[in-house]
């Protein structure tokens, strides 16, 4: 398949915001930022865990962990945190299937938990994630990492690590594509 | 009473339309009739039949006048084309004595829309233990005895009832249901009941009693009438018994001719009845048996029930269905349209045979000059849609709700007097 | 999904979705301090039990409470039911009082179907928690959940249901559900405890337990419902136990991996030997545990989505 041009619109009305290479570079940059901001490689570093929010936050968290290990030598535990049961919009659509919640070994108590998601939009998913996290323990602090921040926040929530800020219209859809689910990496606007 | 002319009617649905003159309650002339100052009913080629006779009606009075009274039930009967009905004994108090049966007969006469013949109980309180005073009730005019709703299950009691009835020239009508085989029974025992988890009412519970009673009747030399035959097996037993010379007659209800236990899937107790709706195979066999005369007649088992006794969970609901105003149409649908019966056949199963079985001298008579004018005029072609709420009955528990059925009653005449015409009561 | 009235005719995809949700819920709650999810906050769930029951009622109540629904229990004693109020009126009253979901256990087959009809206008969901001899769909779902945990996919698995099939709503619901999930079901019972017309069910019929055991993946024992017995369905408890009880000898005839289920309450000694009931092959306590998760899943599928226009 020919490499896709960034910003090009294909016949299906799809515009590429990040290419596969961009995704890899962005994840790497975010890994560096996490190491820096949490002072992960300092002797007095806090215990950091990455909690991916399914579906696509989960592999992103694992990819970040791989990069963090590569850059800092520190193995950061990862887990997944399904927020479906905590959503406030369940009655606005068909029944949502549940995803897995898997806490890292040692749980989240007194850890610095970095929530990882693909797209930050209204903030409602993160609100649900904070509630879910509370039921699993008492982290020392919670931070948020997202690959794309597309704006239109409805709650006072902001990300600590943002891969790319993308101005969007509310009606547009931002899709993060990951090899694990979509057979390719990229971010597209539909 | 003014003379009446039925204009353009076809007796038994045969031949060209003729006029029928009725004077003083009797058929005075058939053919081209001229009569000054006569009331006329326009037949438009409708079928003229002898007035229908229902051997099996629940009028609920006395006891449950909130569901039906002798007045409302008589109106339903007249609108359904009936000129005589037999009011079952399971009232409250039970019609097991002359006082109650005389009361029912008197109320029927006062209403005057249909001949109301009280059925007397076979046993005191329908309890199946002690014979009721059949002789006293027979003297009060009772022609048919039945514990309907309950089976006279004790073979010795049944034998005595059959024997005793011989001297009275009356008939014992059995509700055939072996009680030990139907404890808690809710539905025809078969695939459907098993699927729905409803306790089964096995066909053999009916058939075994019918077989037993046929043997007892033959032994006693007595007459037996079998209520609401519902199974293929019962039809087979009747055929066998009749071939052996048993004096047995039998009735089938319209609902057993048309409906099957497929309808139970909704658990709506409007379909709950006793005996229960059976299989499609049974319904087909019952139609054949009626056509062949193995089953003698159609009887409605008209059973009004209050909403609170029907719109419940299945097992809490009372069994029974309205029938008087739909019987003709169901017979047309199941027997006439299928070619199993012609209109002579309809006259036989709806009027002549039931009148004979009950020994009514003035019902089910031929349509001839000099005969009593108990007549029903039927439009065979018009269809109508069943609406229980529009029935004359107080209750509305019809399983045929919303069905489009063929055949309407144009007019009903009781001894020359129009009791119903154009779907309205004339009192 | 608006109601759960039966497993007959259930879409296998729907059944699988409920079982998957139950498994996820179980996993999500495992090892947690706070076994409470906010999912059904503000929803009102009413249990109406017209028959004595401990495990099913408690299981539904816990399921509702763990999902943060407001759960109200109504029993036939100590309510207007005891004063002769009809099922219809009681249901309409509870719906008017704001029930989003009514969970009903009733001795009349079809009671849950009738309730769903009466409550159509109110939009209330109905869960059948056992209706007469008809169905007990959540029991079948928890049985299937337990079997899936032990056996994985149920396709082509051989499962025997043993005992009083005639009176058993558990048997009916399991026949429909397990066959929908692709299992190969055999009913083992004396002819007196099999329903008329059972030949038309998608199952194999057997009267010989010993002959079936060696090829089974699971054996499900039914309760012998003494309270429904009028008139000797079998000669004696002793003969029943000899013919159909799961003894230690019979346990040895089962393959190593085979699972033993019982919906409870058990008649130890007659239906199942104590040693069998307490053996690791028996999944009886798993069934109870999974019951909560399955019922949570059912409530989730009924109540946590947009209104369906029924």
From TrEMBL, chain A:
Source organism per UniProt: Saccharothrix carnea
Keywords, in A-Z order: Glycosyltransferase, Transcription, Transcription regulation, Transferase
Reaction(s) this enzyme catalyzes, per UniProt: UMP + diphosphate = 5-phospho-alpha-D-ribose 1-diphosphate + uracil
Location of the motif PRPP-binding: 113-125
Keyword Transcription: yes
Highest taxon listed in the record's lineage: Bacteria
BP term (GO), one: regulation of DNA-templated transcription
Assigned protein family: Belongs to the purine/pyrimidine phosphoribosyltransferase family. PyrR subfamily.
Gene: pyrR
Name of the protein this chain belongs to: Bifunctional protein PyrR
NCBIfam families in alphabetical order: PRK05205.1-3, PRK05205.1-5
The EC number(s) this enzyme carries: 2.4.2.9
Domain Phosphoribosyltransferase: 17-165
Keyword Transcription regulation: yes
UniProtKB/TrEMBL annotation, chain B:
Source species taxonomy: Bacteria, Bacillati, Actinomycetota, Actinomycetes, Pseudonocardiales
GO BP annotations listed: 'de novo' UMP biosynthetic process; purine nucleobase catabolic process
Entries under Gene3D superfamilies matching the protein: Metal-dependent hydrolases, Urease, subunit C, domain 1
Listed name of the protein: Dihydroorotase
Function: Catalyzes the reversible cyclization of carbamoyl aspartate to dihydroorotate.
Binding site for Zn(2+) 2: 148, 175, 228
Gene: pyrC
UniProt xrefs under PROSITE patterns: DIHYDROOROTASE_2
Binding-site residues for Zn(2+) 1, renumbered to this chain: 56, 58, 148, 301
Species for this entry: Saccharothrix carnea
Catalytic reactions of this protein: (S)-dihydroorotate + H2O = N-carbamoyl-L-aspartate + H(+)
From TrEMBL, chain C:
The protein's Enzyme Commission number: 2.1.3.2
Binding site for carbamoyl phosphate: 55-56, 105, 136, 139, 264-265
Gene Ontology molecular functions: amino acid binding; aspartate carbamoyltransferase activity
Keywords: Pyrimidine biosynthesis, Transferase
NCBIfam families reported in the protein's UniProt record: asp_carb_tr, PRK00856.1
Function: Catalyzes the condensation of carbamoyl phosphate and aspartate to form carbamoyl aspartate and inorganic phosphate, the committed step in the de novo pyrimidine nucleotide biosynthesis pathway.
Identification of the protein by name: Aspartate carbamoyltransferase
Source organism of the structure: Saccharothrix carnea
């Amino acid at each position: 398949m020919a490499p896709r041009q960034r910003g090009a619109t294909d016949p299906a009305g799809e515009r590429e915001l990040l290419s596969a290479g961009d995704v890899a570079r962005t994840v790497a940059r975010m890994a560096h930022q996490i190491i820096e901001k949490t002072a992960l490689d300092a002797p007095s570093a806090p215990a950091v865990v990455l909690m991916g929010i399914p579906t696509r936050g989960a592999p992103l968290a694992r990819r970040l962990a791989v990069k963090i290990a590569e850059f800092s030598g520190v193995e950061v535990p990862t887990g997944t945190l399904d927020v479906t049961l905590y959503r406030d919009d369940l009655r606005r659509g068909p029944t949502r299937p549940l995803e897995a919640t898997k806490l890292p070994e040692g749980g989240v108590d007194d850890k610095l938990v970095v929530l990882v998601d693909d797209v930050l939009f209204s903030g409602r998913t993160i609100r649900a994630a904070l509630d879910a996290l509370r039921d699993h323990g008492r982290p020392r602090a919670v931070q948020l990492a997202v690959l794309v921040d597309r704006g239109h926040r409805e709650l006072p929530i902001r990300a600590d690590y943002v891969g790319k800020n993308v101005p969007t219209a509310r009606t547009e859809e931002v899709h993060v594509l990951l090899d694990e689910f979509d057979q390719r990496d990229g971010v597209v606007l539909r | 009473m003014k003379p009446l002319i039925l204009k353009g009617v076809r007796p038994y649905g045969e031949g060209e339309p003729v006029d029928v003159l009725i004077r003083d309650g009797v058929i005075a002339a058939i053919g081209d009739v001229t009569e000054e100052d006569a009331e006329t009913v326009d037949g438009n080629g409708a079928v003229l039949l002898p007035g229908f006779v229902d051997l099996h009606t629940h009028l609920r009075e006395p006891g449950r006048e909130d569901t039906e009274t002798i007045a409302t039930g008589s109106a339903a009967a007249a609108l359904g084309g009936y000129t005589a009905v037999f009011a079952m004994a399971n009232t409250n108090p039970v019609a097991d004595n002359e006082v109650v049966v005389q009361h029912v007969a008197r109320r029927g006469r006062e209403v005057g829309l249909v001949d109301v013949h009280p059925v007397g109980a076979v046993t005191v309180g329908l309890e199946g233990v002690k014979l009721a005073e059949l002789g006293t009730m027979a003297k009060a005019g009772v022609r048919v005895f039945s514990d309907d709703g309950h089976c006279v299950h004790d073979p010795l009691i049944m034998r005595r009832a059959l024997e005793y009835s011989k001297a009275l020239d009356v008939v014992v009508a059995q509700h055939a249901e072996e009680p030990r085989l139907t404890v808690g029974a809710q539905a025809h025992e078969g695939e459907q009941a098993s699927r729905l988890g409803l306790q089964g009412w096995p066909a053999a519970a009916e058939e075994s009693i019918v077989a037993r009673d046929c043997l007892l009747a033959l032994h006693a030399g007595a007459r037996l009438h079998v209520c609401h035959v519902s199974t293929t097996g019962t039809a087979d037993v009747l055929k066998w018994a009749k071939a052996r010379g048993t004096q047995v007659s039998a009735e089938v209800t319209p609902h057993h001719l048309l409906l099957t236990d497929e309808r139970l899937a909704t658990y709506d107790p409007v379909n709950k009845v006793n005996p229960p709706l059976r299989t499609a195979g049974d319904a087909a066999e019952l139609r054949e048996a009626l056509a062949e005369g193995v089953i003698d007649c159609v009887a409605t088992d008209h059973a009004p029930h209050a909403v609170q006794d029907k719109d419940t969970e299945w097992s809490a609901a009372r069994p029974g269905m309205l029938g008087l105003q739909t019987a003709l149409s169901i017979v047309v649908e199941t027997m006439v349209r299928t070619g199993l019966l012609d209109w002579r056949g309809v006259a036989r199963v709806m009027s002549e045979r039931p009148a004979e079985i009950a020994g009514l001298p003035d019902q089910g008579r031929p349509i001839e000059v000099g005969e009593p004018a108990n007549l029903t005029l039927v439009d065979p072609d018009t269809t109508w849609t069943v609406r229980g709420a529009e029935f004359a009955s107080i209750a509305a528990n019809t399983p045929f709700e919303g069905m489009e059925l063929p055949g309407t009653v144009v007019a009903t005449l009781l001894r020359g007097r129009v009791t119903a015409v154009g779907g309205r009561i004339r009192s | 999904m608006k109601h759960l009235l039966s497993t007959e005719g259930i879409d296998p995809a729907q059944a699988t979705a409920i079982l998957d949700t139950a498994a996820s819920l179980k996993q999500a709650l495992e090892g947690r301090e706070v076994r409470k999810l906010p999912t059904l906050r503000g929803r009102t769930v009413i249990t109406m039990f017209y028959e004595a029951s401990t495990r099913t009622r408690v299981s539904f109540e816990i399921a509702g409470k763990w999902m943060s629904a407001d759960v109200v229990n109504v029993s036939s004693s100590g309510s207007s039911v005891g004063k002769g109020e009809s099922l219809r009126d009681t249901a309409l009253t509870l719906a008017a009082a704001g029930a989003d979901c009514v969970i009903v256990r009733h001795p009349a087959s079809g009671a849950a179907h009738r309730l769903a009809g009466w409550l159509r206008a109110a939009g209330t969901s109905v869960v059948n928690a056992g209706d007469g001899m008809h169905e007990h769909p959540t029991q079948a779902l928890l049985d299937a959940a337990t079997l899936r945990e032990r056996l994985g996919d149920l396709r082509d698995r051989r499962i025997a249901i043993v005992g009083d099939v005639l009176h058993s709503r558990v048997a009916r619901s399991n026949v429909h559900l397990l066959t929908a999930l692709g299992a190969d079901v055999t009913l083992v019972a004396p002819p007196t405890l099999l329903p008329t017309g059972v030949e038309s069910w998608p199952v194999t019929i057997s009267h010989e337990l010993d002959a079936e055991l060696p090829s089974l993946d699971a054996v499900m024992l039914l309760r012998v419902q003494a309270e429904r017995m009028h008139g000797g369905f079998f000669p004696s408890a002793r003969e029943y136990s000899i013919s159909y009880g799961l003894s230690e000898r019979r346990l040895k005839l089962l393959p190593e991996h085979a699972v033993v289920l019982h919906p409870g309450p058990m008649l130890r000694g007659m239906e199942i030997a104590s040693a069998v009931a307490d053996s690791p092959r028996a999944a009886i306590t798993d069934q109870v545990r999974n019951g909560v998760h399955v019922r949570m899943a059912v409530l989730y599928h009924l109540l946590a989505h947009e209104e369906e226009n029924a």
